[in-house]
Design goal:
Shape: globular
Radius of gyration: 17 Å
Oligomer: single chain
Strand order of the largest sheet: 2-1-3-6-7
Order of helices and strands: EHEHEEEHEHEH
Number of strands: 7
């Protein structure tokens, strides 16, 4: 699993990254600007994008709005200090998995992986059911 972390201050996300790595091996790639983030997304198969509230050249919600125009099925989480209601309103229709607090912790990484695992189960094709052969 490859996670793109978009943030100017990567150190703020160390606890979150630790939480993500507790349950799964993953590769973290990072960028400090939206432009660099889009370049990484163009060149790699990214499974999850975690976006800080404000990155170098754009705010996190605006970045995700642009991202879903390119890849509407990408998994995203955004750091935001908005109230839950305001965040929901601002991100409605974007498919954002989770609002992260300003100082994301290990438990936030664990919660994010739980959500991803549930989605993964939902997106897997159902196994074909065996056909019952009856007598006519």
């Amino acid at each position: 699993m490859i996670v793109l972390l978009l943030a100017k201050e990567m150190a703020r996300f160390s606890a979150l990254v630790t939480g993500l790595q507790h349950r799964r091996e993953l590769e973290i790639v990072s960028a400090a600007t939206g432009v660099d983030g889009f370049l990484l997304l163009k060149d790699r198969k990214i499974n999850l994008v975690i976006v800080d509230q404000q990155i170098g050249d754009i705010d996190g919600i605006t970045f995700v709005k642009q991202l879903v125009k390119i890849n509407p099925l990408i998994n995203t989480a955004i750091v935001s200090t908005l109230s839950a209601e305001d965040f929901h309103e601002a991100t409605e229709g974007l498919g954002v998995l989770m609002q992260l607090p300003e100082e994301p912790q290990e438990k936030d990484g664990d919660t994010l992986l739980t959500i991803l695992e549930k989605i993964g189960v939902l997106l897997q094709p159902m196994a074909p059911q065996p056909q019952k052969v009856g007598k006519s």
